[in-house]
Sequence to fold (344 residues):
Amino acid sequence: MNIHVVGIDLGKTVFHLVGMDAEGNITLRKRMSRSQVLAYLVNVPACTVAMEASCGAHFLGRQLRGYGHQVRLIPAQFVRPFVKSQKNDYVDAEAIAEAAQRPTMRFVPIKTEDQLDLQALHRQRDRLIERRTALINQLRAFLLERGITIRTGRLQLRRELASMQAVLDERLSPRMGRMFKRTMEEWKALEKDIEEVDAEIQAIAQADEGCRRLLTVPGIGPIVATAMVAAIGNGSAFQKGREFATWMGLVPQQWSTGGKPKLLGISKRGNEYLRRLFIHGARSVVSRVKRERLPFGSWITSLQARSHHNVLCVAVANKLARIAWTVLNRQTEFAPAVVTGTPA
Fold:
């Protein structure tokens, strides 16, 4: 059987495979379980195996690469144009195989186990912070229903609650007081969990060479550095920093026709979590870093005079992303290493 490329439509337990020869003719069409896929492809001569870059694709990709196959992971949005007529699993697998043969197709690098572990750590931290925010908002609502208002801010709420225990005992019913106490204990447990995750991320950032170089960039702390390494490794998937910024959705969305360019707001494509972290780091640079110490400090001041604050922060995040990619990919450090400010 002549197989040049195999497209796999991934599932939880059942996979669909479509194989093509060098001319694009279908030579294989099979439905297999996860264990059957590995057992079958280990005996297939080395070829290109393509999958959508979805959950489980990186693990399977490492396995198949160990068998000698050339593994291609394709973003799902780039496979969609190749789907013909009605949608089913075999049609999806065929579209994946066709997309993998396009010379201009963009592929996703296979993540290492360390990258996936670090990515999972960040996802856990993000989930804990979301739970803490929801819990704090619920506490504020409980207090507001009983006529108690507290200034916004997590630390401010904690200080106020510690100093107004007598007021709470007077205004809250016994049942509400017990529920309020359980909620406060849950908050303390969440804070402890977040601190432990932050400490682990800090240790990883200090031990990893790429993260240590990223820490020299203003506005980038252990959270941003480790999240960037987890997402793109050494950045080899991008040819320049602008491609990395575009992948994060930090450049204007283009809607041009008839030779008339039209730019909209930022595209917000790609990794939303990493984009959010870079924008937080940019806010720190804009508000706290001494601009005379930065090579682009005068540019920030000039842009601030003619742009909205949010536009300024996104533009600075774009510039920081390009600098960070250069530092990571070229294995260098940011020149003005001494910068004051609070990194993200």
Summary: The longest helix spans residues 174-207. The mean pLDDT is 91. The chain has three domains: 5-100, 113-207, 209-329.
